[in-house]
Amino acid sequence: MTVSAHQTILEVRDLTIALPSDGDRSTAVRKVSFTVGRGEIVCLVGESGSGKSVIAQGVMGLLPKTLPVTSGQILLQGEDITHAPLSRLRELRATRMSMIFQEPMTALNPVMTCGDQIDEVLSQHSRLSPLERREKVLAIVREVLLPDPERMVASYPHQLSGGQRQRIMIAMALVLDPVLLIADEPTTALDVTTQAQILKLVLDLQHRHGAGVLFITHDFGVVAEVAHRVAVLRLGDLVEVGLKHDVLQRPQHAYTKMLIGAVPTLHLKQRPLDADAPVVLKVQRLAKTYVDKRWIGPDRSVHAAQDVSFEIRRGQTLGIVGESGSGKSTVARCIVRLVDPSAGAVLLGSEDIAMMSVAQLRPLRRRVQIVFQDPYRSLNPRRTVAQAMVEGPMNYGLGRADALQRARSLLALVRMDASAMDRYPHQFSGGQRQRICIARALMMEPELLVADEAVSALDVSVQAQVLELFEEIRSRLNLAMLFITHDLRVASQVCDQLAVMSQGRVVEYGPAHQVFGAPQHEYTRALFAAAPGRDFAFGA
Amino acid sequence: MSAPDFDSLSVEAASVLRQPSAWDRVRQSGSVRLGGLVLLLLVLIALAAPWLGTVDPSLFDPASRDLLPGKTGEITTLEGETLKHRFLMGSDSFGRDIYSRVIYGTQVSLIVGLFTAIVAMALGILFGLLAGFLRWLDGPLMRVMDGVMAIPAILIAISLVAMWRGSLSTVVVAIAIPEIPRVTRLVRSLVLSIREEPYVEAAVSLGTPTWKIMGRHILPNCVAPLVVQGTFICASGILTEAILSFLGVGLPPDIPTWGNVMAEGRAQFNEYPHNIFFPGIFLALTVLAVNILGDGLRDTLDPKMAKRV
Questions:
Q1: What pLDDT does B3 receive?
Q2: Main-chain dihedrals φ then ψ at residue A434, nearest 5 degrees
């Protein structure tokens, strides 16, 4: 891996892009300079709002009018394209630079076949005959390792899986052999095993075509997998650029140090478990089947969860890991009874709540509380923090004054200022909102706290803080926790027991150190192998 | 694991956008200001009608028939007194003062618009909540609504007024009924999407009873689109009332409404266009003002809908 930029493809010099006057700062990016050489992958890393996507749009000439380039230059193979006319940019796109996006479903046209969409790029930018174009389309589809190219070319985007769609996007981007490929969070929307395959594909293709790649991501695991050089952005400022090993293992800037320090390691945090702690929740052969009743023909059913059994003891955390569609969230929602299980038992202490009627369930609801993934939608935008927090206890007859008293002490527990009480959710950041949601759940003094991907939507530095909070709450209040996540790194930080789910079934279940240390099931092993950056030692 | 300098370095704290509140955006919207101003002016005109140089709108004087705007003539009060009066907008074929009738007509139009919106919204919200929450009622209720929507609004209104005799309340109800399905559909779709929001699910797991969830979590988050819909119903209510009156199936002809004034002027439109011109201007202005206000509210309160429509 020679990374000396012997031939610079992209040079960004002192680039400054303004934000509209009502933004939270005056510039989206400020005086940013970096280069991408031939055959080089440069990762642009930063948390949300750091301006990394704006830079990508700037290079592609896709910036909206509200975000003008106010100074600096963008040079593509020496040609200044900062203020190039639209016609010139159109020539350059696809032929010399191209881009792949985060969400391939929305980036592809739903009413054109994938083959036609790749063909369109060729017919716009080349003088090939239809027959030659078809040959070329099939060749590139083969190159991105899609099975059965003929069928893929004739398919519409919705007929393909997320990973296949992303491969089509990559084929489209590379069909004209551009010198620069910009990948804007290309694997963020994908499952971890698919992500591993796509990352490998990008690396292979980049190696074969020799293009320069500007790879935008927030995930240091991905950085460790693909990058040659790394550029770290913070609030529009480039705080650090360097070779991968330098930046990830010997970061210089305090911000980079903090970010890398916040990346959860894959090393288990082991702690002694009390094997005799009382069982708080026991799930037996739980199943949920969604039935689509139809007027004509047989009903269609989907088995979201089947034969799921596990138990959680007081003071311990059970993690359920799995990819999207594995049924892990369905299980969580069955336990909280946001959906009604189709079969099985959910024993809360000695009571089976699986099939209870709403009226019977009411007094028991307070014993299980849930924290959701999206902190922006978990709080009613029209109710203050105090109103949100006292709602639950007051449903069970606690007086307002007592409820407010409890709210104040719990806000202190989640390290929020008491002044938060009278403010509305939109006045808080995502991490702060998630703290409020945790406090709201704790208001009910539950025995079991369910966290459904509760840290997945948070930036890595905030994620570390919230994880720490969960851990502290569990030990201080001696709670049982059910922690649902797709992220093995997160799971390794908090879980005592681990259940791995795939296609609605628990494929492996046991103490975390056992599942991590010696995974038995094939799927578990594949999942661990796919975790990005698993062999990389981050140093802060 | 956590860096001690987290707070000084965290991007998060800095990235909380200082967004202007919805109310600030509403106040700064040009459309809201313009529409609101014109509407306010019309409300003031309606309230101050007796003091704006008008006479009783039902007074007539055969001697002052078909006067052109600005001419002075005589008018006889109910007590038999004869007054000199300047007919600012001319007079109709009975010798009634069109200016007075148009000004007093403002009252009728605004009342009809306002109450149509209130009646249609109230019933629509009720049906929408029921359809969105009680799944077994959803099918039957929405098919009835589809049925109502299939009949032209003006036909329903005409037949209802014909059944009940024309009075202000029957006209309001008759105009409101065809508007109900649209509100119902809107509320139902809002309920169906909001009830899936995590904050509603959180309320369920906090043990909040269903009726409290509706009142506390769902309805307040429907307000913005409902306010917008309300203004459009108001505008269409004013227009429909004028149409009904013009067709002679609305309020009785002795009540001064813009539609009635235009209906009487219809026969002599060629010779005396002022009979239709002045009430027409007021009608157009009112409907335009309400619609501009509604557009402004939609753009500021409900940006998603603004992009869609």
A1: 36
A2: -65, -35
Q: Do A257 and B3 touch (CB under 8 A)?
A: yes
| A 410-449 residues inside an 8 A Cβ radius of B | 426-432, 437, 440-441, 444
- Mean pLDDT estimate for chain A: 88
Across the interface, do B5 and A431 touch by the CB < 8 Å criterion? Answer: no
The B residues from 190 to 209 touching A (CB cutoff 8 Å) are: 197-199, 201-209
Show Cβ contacts of residue B198 under 8 Å, excluding neighbours closer than 6 positions. Answer: A372, A373, A374, A377, A378
Strand order in the sheet with A300-313: A300-313, A279-292, A343-348, A351-352
Q: Which of A185, A188, A155 is nearest to A44 (CA)?
A: A185
Report CB contact under 8 Å: A377, B17. no
Nearest residue to A182 via CA among A28, A56, A93: A56
Please identify every stretch of chain B with a pLDDT value under 70, giving residue numbers as ranges.
Answer: 1-21, 302-309
Residue of A nearest to B4 (CA): A258
Same fold, A1-96+179-261 and A278-367+449-454+479-531: yes
Tell me the C-alpha to C-alpha distance, in Å, between residue B48 and each of A165, A464, B43, B104: 67, 66, 9, 9
pLDDT at A540: 54
Domain A1-96+179-261: give its CATH superfamily.
Answer: P-loop containing nucleotide triphosphate hydrolases (3.40.50.300)
Q: What are the residues facing A93 on neighbouring strands?
A: A97
Q: Tell me the pairing of strands A69-76 and A79-80.
A: antiparallel
* Length of chain A as a residue count: 540
Tell me which chain B residues have a C-beta less than 8 angstroms from the C-beta of A255: 9
The two three-digit tokens of residue A286, written as one number:
């739980």
β A351-352/B82-87 pair status: unpaired
CA distance A422 to A430: 18
- Per-residue pLDDT tens for A294-339? 777 788 888 889 999 999 999 999 999 988 888 899 999 999 999 9
Q: Where are the domains of chain A?
A: 1-96+179-261, 106-177, 278-367+449-454+479-531
Strand runs (DSSP E) across A57-171, as ranges? Answer: 69-76, 79-80, 97-100
Q: pLDDT by residue (tens digit) across A330-377?
A: 999 999 999 999 999 999 988 899 888 888 898 899 999 999 988 888
Mapped onto helix, strand or coil, the DSSP state of residue A181 is: strand
- In the chain, the amino acid numbered B53 is G
Which tokens hold the place of A88?
A: 């010139």
Per the structure block, which two tokens stand in for A15? Answer: 């680039």
Tokens of B154: 């003006």
- Angstrom distances, CA of residue B285 to CA of A70, B3, B292: 45, 63, 10
Q: Which of B10, B194, B205, B301 to mutate to test the interface with A (most CBs of A within 10 A)?
A: B205
Has residue A213 got a pLDDT over 70? yes
Beta bridge partners of B135: none
Q: From CA A459, how far away is CA A463, in angstroms rounded?
A: 6
Q: How far apart are the first and last CA of chain A?
A: 24
Would you say A232 and A253 are in contact if contact means Cβ atoms under 8 Å apart? yes
Answer CATH for A278-367+449-454+479-531 from 3.10.50.30, 3.40.630.30, 3.40.225.10, 3.40.50.300: 3.40.50.300
Beta strand ranges found along chain B (DSSP E): 71-76, 82-87
Expressed in angstroms, the distance from the first to the final Cα of chain B is 50
Q: Search chain A and give the residue with CA nearest B209.
A: A395
Block residue for tokens 């400020």? A30
Q: What are the phi and psi torsion angles at A213 (to 5°)?
A: -120, 130
Count Cβ atoms below 10 Å from residue A431 Cβ, excluding itself. Answer: 22
For residues A100 and A169, is the Cβ–Cβ distance under 8 A? yes
Counting every residue, how long is chain B?
309
Residue A374's CB is within 10 A of a number of other CB atoms, namely 18
